[in-house]
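Reminder to self: tokens first, then the designed residues, so the page reads top to bottom the way the pipeline ran.
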């Protein structure tokens, strides 16, 4: 690999090789491969592959599975493409429809996507809502287990993804999935969300106990790629009335966003992986 014209600094061969490992892992089924497989694909010596994998594990991009000698990508790799992906599909497709919904329901609405093991607000109608008391500004991170958007994502994502996310929360000591918490109960709750077709929280998030939320999934090519959320003051809204009044509008908006994905000229390239 040669330096570009005019460069006086040395390029990092280690970084380049680490990126080769990430690409090779991504090309294997399930994002998993052995050291031997990666060595064969990249042409790198097994010792070099092992050293790079250990570095990627330390950085959180790869995890190991001693029982089968496999190394797997973690969900942190999604952050590498998050800015590019989000800026295109949210700006072009989701945001205009979300703002139309916001004018109908009046309460603040948000589009959220997964980043590592949290939901991140990508855009919001907060600045347009007459009830913009909820601080759901873009960039804010929300927990998975105590918010409507988080529960909706967990309920509707793929089973393997859900297992990994719950495992991640448990490993980092999330008090909502601590060792004394019945994980089967969480699974049952998520099953109920999936059967209903939407998720709700009513002051469960301790940082925002005054607020509740309703969220529905947004899907593309069989995958849950985002959630559409509406926030409201718990004392101001009857949850049963809210579901009856707002939920049909939210589901219709999610459906229209999904249709926008399919009809987009760039639909073939929109795989959100």
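Designed residues (273 positions):
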């Amino acid at each position: 690999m040669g330096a570009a014209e005019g460069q006086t600094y040395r390029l990092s061969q280690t970084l380049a090789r680490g990126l080769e490992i990430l690409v090779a892992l991504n090309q294997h089924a399930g994002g998993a491969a052995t050291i031997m497989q990666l060595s064969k694909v990249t042409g790198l010596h097994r010792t070099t592959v092992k050293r790079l994998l250990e570095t990627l594990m330390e950085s959180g991009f790869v995890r190991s599975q001693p029982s089968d000698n496999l190394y797997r990508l973690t969900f942190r790799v999604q952050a590498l493409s998050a800015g590019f992906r989000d800026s295109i599909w949210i700006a072009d497709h989701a945001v205009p429809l979300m703002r139309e919904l916001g004018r109908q329901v009046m309460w603040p609405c948000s589009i959220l996507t997964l980043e590592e093991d949290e939901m991140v607000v990508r855009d919001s109608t907060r600045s347009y809502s007459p009830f913009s008391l909820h601080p759901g500004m873009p960039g804010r991170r929300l927990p998975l287990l105590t918010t409507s958007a988080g529960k909706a994502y967990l309920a509707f994502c793929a089973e393997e993804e859900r297992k990994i996310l719950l495992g991640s929360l448990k490993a980092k000591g999330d008090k909502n999935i601590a060792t004394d918490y019945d994980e089967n109960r969480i699974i049952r709750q998520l099953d109920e969300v999936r059967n209903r077709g939407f998720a709700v929280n009513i002051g469960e998030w301790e940082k925002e106990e005054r607020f509740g939320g309703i969220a529905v999934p947004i899907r593309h090519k069989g995958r849950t790629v985002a959630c559409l959320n509406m926030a409201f003051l718990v004392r101001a809204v009857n949850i049963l009335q809210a579901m009856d009044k707002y939920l049909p509008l939210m589901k219709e908006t999610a459906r229209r966003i999904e249709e926008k994905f399919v009809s987009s000229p760039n639909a073939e390239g929109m795989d959100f992986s």
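The chain has a mean pLDDT of 83.
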